[in-house]
Amino acid sequence: MTKLKQTPLLEEHKKLNAKIIDFGGWLMPVQYTNVIDEHTTTRTKAGLFDICHMGEFQIKGPDAKKFINKIITNNIENLVPNKAFYTCMCYENGTIIDDLFVYCFNDNNYIFVVNAGNINKDLEWIKQHKGEFNVEIKDISDETAKLDIQGQESEKILQKLTKTNLQDLKRFHFTEDNIEDIKTIISRTGYTAEEGFELYFDSKEAPLIWNKLLEVGKEFGLKPIGLGARDTLRIEAGYSLYGHELNNKITPLEADIGFTVKLDKEEFISKQSLTEQKQNLKRKIMAFEMIDKAIPRENYKILKDDSEIGFVTSGTFSPTFKKGLGMGMINIEHAKEDNEIYILVREKKYKAKIVHKPIYEFCSKNKG
Question: Is residue 41 included in any domain, yes or no?
Fold first, then answer.
């Protein structure tokens, strides 16, 4: 039996009486109180998430920029120092190896943040394509901790622990500063559609920073948040999750994240396939809300009248809107906003409507 991995914060979660589950081979907290409470706390106050299971690779060297532009779909030329962007790595046929964030420190030094379940696969694929490029590829996942603090009060809480003026830090930008004398990357990013930050630092310091944030944030209503609420928050936002909206059988164009694909840049892996597909897209991920009272779940069939036109990729009961919400892969001729569809739940049809993403609108003075 394979031993489950754990983050540096497992004992802290146990002290907080978290419910611990096997999440893709990791022991992770799914909830501390309950999903609705934790979801609402993040939407109205602030939530703290242990994301230490995510993977981080450092890619540096004289050819770093050229090499990265070959293996990702977005254009690294658009990335300046202290800025991050979202992108994909794809196979030759255009299907997705992983979705990730790339952080630019300078033209010769970048960090990839990848999904926990894809660390080994991603690293192997990146190394396979190194070729003659003068770059060093290093897996720094084990030595890097990652915490997300998200919600309306997150800036006020974090500001008490850093000298950086966080009001000046725009969305998708980052800076390096100390928190409790620990060197930390502070990034204005997140996966909840709320105001918020992602923090990266030495994994040995995770318990100290975790507890300090909870201590300072107590007066602002900060609570630890589990994977259950993380999922409902991202579904409300219409954010994709690898293994659901994204996988090795789906392309970024089909996943409705075509903004990550820059076909006008120089040659890159999957460029030809994605260029051809763009002219003849047959299906697409769309968001929907339930009109009838029902909760959509992954792999439920999507119907138009009595014909099957797709399948649900993610679904949940929305604590914010008090109704069922989801995303699904839908045949292109039916993938239009305001179209009425049906979700087949236990052999019974329930009416739904295709809606604009993000379902939960992100409104922030730092949106950019």
Answer: yes
Whole-number Å distance between alpha carbons of 95 and 97:
7
User: By the 8 A CB rule, do 282 and 272 touch?
Assistant: no
The number of domains in the chain is 2
Query: Where residue 29 sits, what CATH number does that domain have?
Result: 3.30.1360.120
Handedness of CA 292, 246, 52, 118 (dihedral sign): positive
Of 340, 341, 336, which Cα lies nearest the Cα of 356? Answer: 336
| 48, 225 contact by CB (below 8 A) | yes
Q: Provide the domain limits for residue 60.
A: 55-139
Say if residue 35 is in the same domain as residue 97. no
Closest CA to 358 of 125, 188, 194: 194
Q: What is the pLDDT of residues 131-189, one digit of tens each?
A: 999 999 999 999 999 999 999 999 999 999 999 999 999 999 999 999 999 999 999 99
What is the Cα–Cα distance from 343 to 326, expressed in whole angstroms? 10
Last residue of a domain, one of 139, 161, 176: 139
Q: Specify burial of residue 53 (Cβ count, 10 A radius: 0-12, 13-18, 19+).
A: buried
Distance, CA of 31 to CA of 13 (rounded, Å): 10
| Bridge partners of residue 323, in order along the sequence | 318
Question: What tokens were used for 139?
Answer: 């897996």
Placement of tokens 């779909």 in the chain: 73
Strands 136-139 and 144-150: unpaired
Same-domain check for residues 59 and 102: yes
Q: What are phi and psi of 221, to 5 degrees?
A: 85, 15
Domain boundary residue among 184, 214, 236?
A: 236
- Using CA atoms, how far apart are residues 230 and 50, in angstroms rounded to an integer? 10
pLDDT digits (tens, 9 = 90+) for 282-298: 999 999 999 999 999 99
> How many C-beta neighbours within 10 Å does residue 290 have?
22
pTM exceeds 0.70, yes or no: yes
Looking only at the bridges linking them, the beta strands covering 26-31 and 5-6 are parallel
Structural domain includes residue 156: yes
